Amino acid sequence: MKIKPILPFLLCSAVSFNASAQKNDAKTFGFAAHQTKLLLNETAKAKAAAARPNLFSPRALDGSGNLLIVSPKDWCSGFFAGNLWFLYEYSGDKFWKEQSEPFTVVMEAEKTNGGTHDMGFKLYNSVGNAYRLTHEQKYKDDIIEAAKTLITRFNPTIGSLKSWDNRKEWKFPVIIDNMMNLELLFEATKLSGDSSFYKIAVTHANTTLKNHFRADNSSYHVIDYDPGTGQVAHKQTHQGFADSSAWARGQAWGLYGYTMCYRETGNKIYLQQAEKIAKYIFGNPQMPADLVPYWDYDAAKQGNQPRDASAAAVTASALYELSTYSTNGKAYKKKADKIINSLNKSYQPQPDSARGFLLLHSTGHKPANSEIDVPIIYADYYYLEALLRQKRLADKKPVINAVGTLKN
Ligand code: GLY
């Protein structure tokens, strides 16, 4: 019997797979670049018409399709700068660097704003990406200064960074989202050599691991602590359907946060926690077939609910990273690819619509009747990040481009 030569066939398949992956990348990033130019224009128009001069960065569309732009104080102020840096990272085109810089420079003043825990979202996604890609000293100094400011919110009795001030129902609320701000602290230790940022990040991650998670590995949104004793006072929600429910974006923040903590510490407990969260998310019977969740897994039991494309984008980005650490990596990569395919296929607006946003169907704060089933800037941010991670894996590069040059 004649044996068919299989190697040339395998080589041809690999080449054609790579060629088709490249074609897909070019199509998706081409769409992203086209839309983002529109969003730059729409943002400039909104700024010119704005009542306050400090409104500068796009956040979302309202239910009527109007563009909402925000000031540097808003927790969403750093995402658009990040999107522009991601487009620069993908293309190497100086045009995107020139667009990114003004949106980044405005954020630098926020490094001394100690009234918020959202320092990571604001500074790390803007200035942090700028430093990663340019290595400019001023951005490095900003990151360290921002970390110094963020740790003023740490309470050693509790072992956590405080999320929100001035909430009459809570004394020391800590939300699962706060895991996302730890990356800034880990980076600040690497840049400054001062280990106190790292130690606080680890302590916060450990306290969250102890108190935020339920037996089924879903997480509460808000844990309120007694600042005097450090004991848990309340386990509640703010943006979820119920105190006992699993708010979809909260689960995604946890997945991303513990994956990143494993990267930064090598502590297997964090890897296991990320794996447990992934098991909860993908084992949930309310997860739709396209893997873009309803805004809250328990709300979904009540019948049709709005989706949250932002939760899907954060999850995909986290899973690409987790796939490189876990023995279950192949399955995670497959899930991430499936999410990205769904977003590419059914959640992108038509080109030249949605004022230039990249994804439709995110849900910001359903209980407050705010930003429901609309484009929101952080969905676009994590979508672009996930696309870059997907591409790096396809190119056989480390999933995280932490080195700081475009050539890596
Ligand atoms: N950090 C707020 C949110 O995820 O909506």
Automatic annotation (TrEMBL):
Q: Does the keyword tRNA processing apply?
A: no
Organism from which the protein derives: Mucilaginibacter pankratovii
Q: Name one Pfam family in it.
A: Glyco_hydro_88
Supply one GO molecular-function term: hydrolase activity
**UniProt KW keywords:** Hydrolase, Signal
Name of the protein described by the UniProt record: Glycoside hydrolase family 88 protein
User: What is the annotated signal peptide range for this record?
Assistant: 1-21
Q: Give the family this protein belongs to, as stated in its UniProt record.
A: Belongs to the glycosyl hydrolase 88 family.
Taxon lineage:
Bacteria, Pseudomonadati, Bacteroidota, Sphingobacteriia, Sphingobacteriales
